[in-house]
Design goal:
heterodimer; A: 115 residues; mainly alpha; disordered C terminus; B: mainly alpha; 2 domains; 0% strand; elongated
Chain lengths: 115, 206
């Protein structure tokens, strides 16, 4: 079957990975099966890309992440240097985010972004 | 990602060691990181673990974040690595690298997609992705969902670029087949997935 020879190129064309050769274009213009294949592959790719769209997050995940970080302790200081004091001063601030911020600032921020 | 602009202030503060700012960054980005993790692992439980590990690593190495990359992109890369570690660590307990068609996960009460009004194709595709063995799902998610180059996919998964392409070909073929068949009862019987690359796959892979 002639189409089988072109299938790979037709799919690559759908993914914009290849320029179609004149021969493939000629075949495509006259072959309904390959046109359908091109359309199908494009739809598949579009759907796959759309899966980046954020899915809903299990309840409590944010709190768990923040407390894990909180328990983990110190991080490497920023490369900019001179922020050592800042790192130390910042220790325990996540507890603040958890205790106060979740209900207020962070919570609102998260909600605002989700809407 | 539009969200990046909003984050600039908090990124600067977090670089200076402001943990509260880091907390806000987590709040602003965790849904997107969870989505990456969920696509790769195929279940909420593992995805949540990946998210935790991702932010832990991000927190520890925040000094290495260069402002020239988008924060979300940087986080995604860490999430890819965390998911690969989790899935790779697991597959070492299985005999063959490509071998285990996953035992379907016991579904938790959280179904991220169930609230979304999906089109038919999307629903079928989600099903089909879920049915893929992790090693195949990873390549198709990294390539076709997140648009990573083949070479980088190989690096994340610890395989050659050619092997990544071969897996991608297999994964796409199975997705197409699953979508075409998609009669509800007929979940693909676990056909032997360990075999050497066919001539067609090798041709496509190079």
């Amino acid at each position: 079957m002639r189409c089988d020879r072109y299938r790979r190129q037709v799919r690559a064309l759908a993914r914009a990975e290849d320029e179609a050769s004149d021969r493939v274009r000629r075949h495509l213009s006259s072959c309904l099966r390959c046109q359908a294949e091109l359309a199908r592959e494009r739809r598949l790719l579009r759907q796959l890309r759309s899966m980046r769209r954020e899915t809903s997050v299990p309840g409590g995940l944010l709190e768990r992440v923040l407390s894990t970080i909180e328990e983990s302790g110190v991080r490497e200081p920023a490369r900019s240097g001179g922020s050592r004091a800042g790192v130390v001063a910042g220790a325990g601030a996540l507890a603040g985010v958890l205790a106060v911020g979740l209900g207020t600032r962070v919570g609102r921020r998260a909600l605002g972004l989700a809407s | 990602m539009a969200v990046n602009d909003d984050l600039v202030g908090d990124i600067a503060l977090a670089r200076e060691g402001d943990d509260e700012a880091f907390g806000r960054l987590v709040a602003a980005t965790h849904a997107s990181v969870f989505t990456v993790a969920f696509r790769l692992t195929g279940n909420s439980h593992d995805a949540a673990d990946v998210v935790q590990e991702t932010y832990l690593r991000a927190y520890r190495s925040f000094g290495k974040f260069r402002g020239d990359a988008k924060f979300a992109t940087w986080l995604h890369r860490i999430a890819f690595n965390c998911a690969s570690d989790l899935l790779g660590g697991r597959s070492r307990h299985v005999h063959e690298e490509l071998g285990h068609d996953d035992v379907p996960e016991a579904r938790t009460e959280h179904h991220p997609e169930s609230t979304v009004d999906n089109g038919q194709l999307r629903a079928e595709l989600l099903d089909a992705l879920e049915q893929l063995p992790v090693s195949l799902r990873a390549v198709v998610v990294l390539r076709d969902v997140y648009d990573l180059p083949h070479a980088e996919i190989g690096e994340h998964l610890g395989i050659s670029t050619t092997a990544a392409k071969v897996r991608l070909h297999r994964a796409r073929t199975r997705l197409r087949t699953a979508i075409e068949e998609s009669s509800p009862q007929e979940n693909e019987p676990s056909r032997p997935s360990v075999r050497s690359a066919t001539a067609e796959e090798m041709r496509d892979a190079v």
